């Protein structure tokens, strides 16, 4: 390569150092940007925020799997885990034994129960699901997705913890476990509900 | 020679055509159109990145049905959207509402463009003011030598 | 066996990269040409490692070697041959492998191309940079994204196969490889930009050498993005082709900076200006491909494309930080040396148009990037959870696209340095007149809507200007008038116009409805008739399809279906499309009949001009190939500008203006 390139470059050395200042400010912005990206939790892990927290639970009533009429209001006085599920949902399968454990633990005291809601599935499928995996709590059919909409459910499994007075105090996205639920109920009781 | 008159005539024809063309979407939207319009601003709850108007998912249908019910009962667009937010949270909306931090996403690009235009404006003024490059004899001789060397 | 060979390949590649970096670094520091010659030979080690790994993976997939975790999760005995082969890039680890082999290939071509200048430190630094990037990707495969992990315990006898959406359409064989050929291709110009900054050799030589690389990479990326849109359209079932999905945006953002570069580099070649800006664009394009990879694979953003989460995120983010820091540091260090003495005389000139073009593309890039990452930023600032979706991007990018269409029409007729109004009026009259005629015809045939009509006018205006350039060029030079950068560029512009017009038309004039039809019943939408005939169940080796027979417009029968794959939790819809030059009839089976012979819900979407999106893509590809055609070669050191009159200020006009020859190397 000839020396032409170095000559014509030397002519233009700038006294204002614009490039340096631009580079420094851009560098600072990018540093902040990378810091933000580094501290994000993954989308799936995000804390379940819900505008329903601290408010009265929406009305929930319908026909259960065995044909009887069930409603959340009728379970007033208990801690209720409202559990939106589907037979095709793999994490729902995984959390089902945990829900069974939870209901068994609270059967004697009768202070807490589970109320299932079908999300985008058919009653026969869910009946088959329950006969296969066990569990005997009431499950409400939601054929038009109205209940899911009222609770702001994105996809199964999602669970809401409703206190004995009907207020929603917790929302969980993804599968739940019995110990976690127990802890939440205990905390709620301690706060005085 | 295409004179100004030819351009003016063409502009007139175009304006007339566009004015006629802009008509036809007459009057306020029908109910079905309103439902579609509102649904297109609400995210389909179960989908990854589609609007409730586009998606086939059960949750999207439920949203559309609910919007239809409320449109028929006479609620305004704002009320219906507010209802959806009250159930699903702010992130059910596909467009950030313009207040607080959310407004930044609308404002920053405009600010950036304005700043860039200002920068260009300053640059242009500086270029105009420059007296032009004067080439010294020594530089000219250097260039001649190099060009000879390259065989030009 | 497969796992051992594959892992050996990965480590071989990593070894080659690391030792290559060390050798070249030493050679550059000691200015030892022998070390530089030796260092570049490690390219072949890297290539060998990559090839070995790919062969091992494909063999494992084709022979259904389920002892490999990747094959156990993504392979299946029932998957058809094509999708087994493409299964290599159907999940995260395999996609890194695809990136690595393409990078190794590009590296080998680069090293071979510059073999006669291997001892030039510029080439040495460029090769070193590519070695570093290759080393990163091989390190990913040796560490968190290992495609050759082995299953401990019982080996399954069969697997679930790739994600059902990736087994649905042959385009899966083309879209990812094309996209990667684009992304990865930008590594080479990036490497040369880094080399130029490090060595201080900031004249135009390196730029001219790598121009064709950048053009090819850009071409592949464009085709890759368009194929992605086509695939979305044919497979996802909502009748759309662009959703401003974060992963779509991640591939689009570097395209925007690359397009800006392809234009502004012409100003650098002609006037020696905008050097810092062009270098920054190249550095930015590569950085944005790495950022895009991070956003796609880290799980921070939800998307149709999300790979399953993996610990790979922090690694990629660290690499991104490194790349960006290096780029910024280099510009800060050397940037001020680049100041050129040139200036732009008038905003109404070809240079001015390119400046405007770059401003618009920079704004476009900023809008898309901001919108894509804004949910993350908002959450970081005050915990707000919000979404930024289609409506935001549509609203913010529409004015930019309109301005760009206008510029596309006007810029090719602008002369360099300064334009006169008369020249513009004369040259643009017929394109503008044709555009007006087109709009009048549209309105006369009943089309309404200001936005699409404006799009039609601007599109025809831009296309008319491009055709005018081509016609003049062909008249002067015969068939040679269609090749070379300027002419190929005009053809690319025509392709872009086709896409813009098709986009506007399909959005404005699309109609969509669902019909519940019993067998034999018909429905009508936008002048098309669909008749539902019934359903049938078809079992294939990898899936069971419930197909609806739908006759469209009394002619051929189309089969929108719902497909159940054995290991997938939900059935997926498979649309069927009747494509035509005027419009597409898009059919979906929204709800199958409850009982045999019952009614089904058929979704029908009629959209005009969809096919022109893909035709426009093909035109862009042709234009790119023509633009890469070698024109009459100009040596890098030949003067570009003719003598110009320069007035000296200050003096009372006693000296006559001196003609100045400005070397334009």
Overview of this protein structure:
The complex is a heterotrimer of chains A (193), B (152) and C (665). Chain A has helices at 4-11, 18-38, 90-107, 123-133, 146-151, 178-191, and strands spanning 61-63, 69-71, 79-85, 112-118, 139-140, 158-162, 168-173. By secondary structure, chain A is of the alpha/beta class. Chain A has two domains: 4-38; 48-191, 3-Layer(aba) Sandwich (Glutaredoxin), CATH 3.40.30.10. In chain A, strands 5-4-3-6-7 form a five-stranded mixed β-sheet, with helices on one face. A two-stranded antiparallel ribbon of chain A has the order 1-2. In chain A, β1 and β2 (69-71) form a beta hairpin. The longest helix of chain A is centred in the first third of the chain and has 21 residues, at 18-38. Mean pLDDT of chain A is 84; it is low at 1-12. Chain B is 62% helix and 0% strand. Chain B has two domains: 27-95, Helicase, Ruva Protein, domain 3; 101-150. The radius of gyration of chain B is 29 Å and the shape is elongated. With 152 residues, chain B is mainly α. In chain B, α2 packs across α3. Chain C folds into three domains: 1-167, no CATH class; 174-187 and 214-419, no CATH class; 511-608, no CATH class. Chain C is built from 19 helices and twelve strands. In chain C, β2 (522-525) and β3 form a beta hairpin. Chains in contact: A-B, A-C, B-C. Chains B and C meet through α1, α5 and α6 of B and α14, α15, α16 and α17 of C.
Write the layout of secondary structure elements.
The complex is a heterotrimer of chains A (193), B (152) and C (665).
Chain A: H1 4-11, H2 18-38, E1 61-63, E2 69-71, E3 79-85, H3 90-107, E4 112-118, H4 123-133, E5 139-140, H5 146-151, E6 158-162, E7 168-173, H6 178-191
Parallel strand pairs in A: 3-4, 4-5
Antiparallel strand pairs in A: 1-2, 3-6, 6-7
Chain B: H1 4-22, H2 31-39, H3 58-72, H4 77-88, H5 104-129, H6 137-150
Chain C: H1 2-30, H2 33-40, H3 42-62, H4 69-74, H5 81-85, H6 92-113, H7 121-142, H8 175-185, H9 187-199, H10 205-236, H11 246-271, H12 275-297, H13 312-334, H14 350-382, H15 390-410, H16 421-444, H17 450-477, H18 485-508, E1 511-517, E2 522-525, E3 528-539, E4 544-552, E5 557-558, E6 561-564, E7 572-574, E8 576-578, E9 583-591, E10 600-608, H19 611-628, E11 644-646, E12 658-660
Antiparallel strand pairs in C: 1-10, 2-3, 3-4, 4-5, 4-6, 6-7, 8-9, 9-10, 11-12
Helix pairs in contact in C: 1-2, 1-3, 1-7, 3-6, 6-7, 6-8, 7-9, 8-10, 9-10, 9-12, 10-11, 10-19, 11-12, 11-14, 12-13, 14-15, 15-17, 16-17, 17-18, 18-19
């Amino acid at each position: 390569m000839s020396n032409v390139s170095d000559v014509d470059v030397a002519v233009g050395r700038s006294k204002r150092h614009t490039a340096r200042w631009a580079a420094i400010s851009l560098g600072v912005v990018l540093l902040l940007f990378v810091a933000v990206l580094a501290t994000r939790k993954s989308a799936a892990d995000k804390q379940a925020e819900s505008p329903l927290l601290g408010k009265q639970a929406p009305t929930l009533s319908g026909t259960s799997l065995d044909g009887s009429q069930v409603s959340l209001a009728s379970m007033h006085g208990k801690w209720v885990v409202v559990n939106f599920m589907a037979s095709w949902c793999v994490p729902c399968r995984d959390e089902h034994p945990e829900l069974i454990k939870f209901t068994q633990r609270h059967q004697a005291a009768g202070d807490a129960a589970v109320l299932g809601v079908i999300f985008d599935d058919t009653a026969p499928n869910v009946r088959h699901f329950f006969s296969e995996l066990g569990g005997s709590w009431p499950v409400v059919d939601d054929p038009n997705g109205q209940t899911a909409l009222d609770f702001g459910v994105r996809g199964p499994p999602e669970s809401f913890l409703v206190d004995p007075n009907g207020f929603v105090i917790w929302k969980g996205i993804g599968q739940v476990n019995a110990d976690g639920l127990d802890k939440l109920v205990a905390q709620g009781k301690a706060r005085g509900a | 020679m295409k004179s100004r008159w030819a351009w003016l005539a063409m502009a007139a024809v175009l304006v007339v055509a566009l004015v006629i063309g802009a008509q036809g979407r007459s009057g306020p939207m029908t109910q079905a159109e309103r439902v579609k319009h509102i649904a297109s601003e609400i995210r389909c709850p179960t989908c990854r990145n589609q609007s409730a108007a586009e998606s086939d998912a059960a949750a999207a249908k439920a949203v559309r049905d609910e919007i239809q019910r409320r449109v028929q009962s006479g609620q305004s667009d704002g009320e219906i959207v507010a209802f959806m937010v009250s159930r699903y949270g702010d992130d059910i909306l596909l467009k950030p509402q313009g207040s607080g931090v959310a407004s930044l996403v609308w404002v920053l690009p405009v600010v950036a463009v304005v700043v860039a235009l200002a920068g260009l404006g300053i640059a242009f003024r500086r270029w105009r003011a420059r007296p032009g490059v004067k080439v010294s004899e020594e530089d000219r001789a250097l260039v001649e030598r190099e060009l000879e060397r390259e065989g030009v | 066996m497969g796992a051992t060979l594959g892992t050996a390949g990965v480590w071989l590649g990593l070894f080659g990269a690391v030792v290559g970096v060390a050798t070249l670094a030493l050679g550059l520091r000691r200015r030892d040409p022998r070390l530089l010659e030796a260092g570049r030979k490690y390219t072949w080690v890297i290539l060998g490692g990559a090839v070995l790994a790919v062969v091992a993976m494909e063999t494992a997939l084709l022979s259904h070697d389920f002892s490999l975790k990747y094959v156990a999760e993504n392979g299946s005995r029932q998957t058809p041959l094509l999708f087994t082969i493409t299964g290599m890039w159907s999940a995260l680890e395999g996609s890194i492998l695809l990136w690595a082999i393409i990078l190794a290939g590009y590296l080998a071509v680069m090293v071979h191309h510059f073999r006669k200048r291997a001892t030039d430190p510029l080439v040495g630094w460029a090769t070193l940079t590519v070695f570093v990037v290759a080393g990163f990707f091989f390190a990913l495969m040796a560490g968190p994204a290992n495609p050759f992990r082995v299953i401990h315990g019982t080996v399954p006898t069969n697997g679930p196969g790739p994600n059902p959406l990736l087994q649905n359409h042959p385009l899966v064989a083309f879209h990812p490889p094309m996209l990667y050929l684009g992304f990865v291709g930008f590594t080479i110009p990036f490497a040369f930009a880094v080399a130029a900054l490090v060595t201080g050799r900031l004249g135009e030589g390196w730029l001219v050498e790598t121009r064709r690389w950048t053009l090819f990479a850009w071409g592949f990326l464009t085709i890759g993005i368009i194929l992605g849109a086509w695939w979305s359209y044919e497979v996802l079932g909502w009748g759309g082709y662009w959703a401003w999905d974060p992963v779509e945006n991640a591939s689009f953002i570097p395209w925007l900076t690359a397009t800006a570069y392809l234009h502004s580099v012409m100003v650098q070649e002609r006037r020696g200006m905008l050097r810092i800006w062009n270098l920054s664009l190249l550095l930015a394009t590569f950085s944005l491909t790495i950022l895009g990879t991070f956003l796609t694979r880290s799980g921070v953003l939800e998307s149709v494309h999300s790979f399953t989460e993996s610990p790979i995120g922090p690694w990629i983010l660290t690499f991104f930080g490194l790349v960006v820091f290096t780029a910024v540091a280099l510009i800060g260090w050397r940037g001020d040396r680049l100041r050129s003495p040139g200036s732009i005389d008038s905003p109404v000139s070809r240079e001015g148009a390119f400046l405007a073009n770059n401003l618009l593309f920079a704004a476009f890039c900023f809008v898309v990037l901001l919108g894509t990452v804004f949910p993350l930023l908002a959450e970081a600032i005050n915990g707000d959870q919000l979404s930024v979706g289609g409506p935001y991007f549509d609203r913010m990018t529409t004015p930019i696209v309109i301005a760009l269409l206008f510029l596309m029409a006007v810029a090719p007729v602008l002369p360099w340095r300064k334009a006169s109004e008369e020249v513009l009026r004369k040259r643009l009259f017929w394109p503008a007149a044709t555009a007006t005629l087109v709009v009048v015809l549209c309105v006369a045939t009943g089309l309404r809507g200001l936005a699409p009509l404006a799009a039609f006018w601007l599109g025809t205006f831009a296309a008319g200007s491009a055709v005018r350039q081509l016609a003049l060029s062909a008249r002067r030079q015969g068939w040679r008038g269609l090749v070379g950068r300027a002419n190929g560029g005009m053809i690319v512009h025509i392709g872009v116009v086709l896409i813009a017009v098709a986009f506007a038309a399909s959005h404005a004039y699309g109609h969509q409805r669902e019909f519940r039809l019993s067998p034999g019943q018909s429905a009508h939408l936008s002048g098309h008739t669909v008749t539902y005939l019934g359903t049938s169940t078809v079992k294939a080796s990898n899936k069971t399809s419930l197909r609806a027979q739908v006759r469209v417009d009394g002619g051929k029968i189309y089969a929108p279906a719902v497909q159940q794959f054995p290991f997938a939790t939900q059935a997926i819809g498979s649309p069927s499309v009747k494509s035509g030059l005027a419009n597409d009839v898009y059919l979906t089976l929204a709800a199958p009949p409850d009982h045999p012979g019952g009614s089904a819900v058929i979704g029908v979407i009629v959209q005009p001009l969809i096919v022109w999106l893909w035709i426009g893509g093909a035109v862009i590809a042709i234009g790119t190939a023509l633009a890469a055609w070698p024109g009459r070669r100009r040596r890098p050191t030949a003067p570009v500008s003719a003598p110009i009159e320069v007035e000296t200020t200050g003096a009372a006009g006693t000296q006559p203006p001196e003609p100045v020859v400005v070397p334009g190397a």
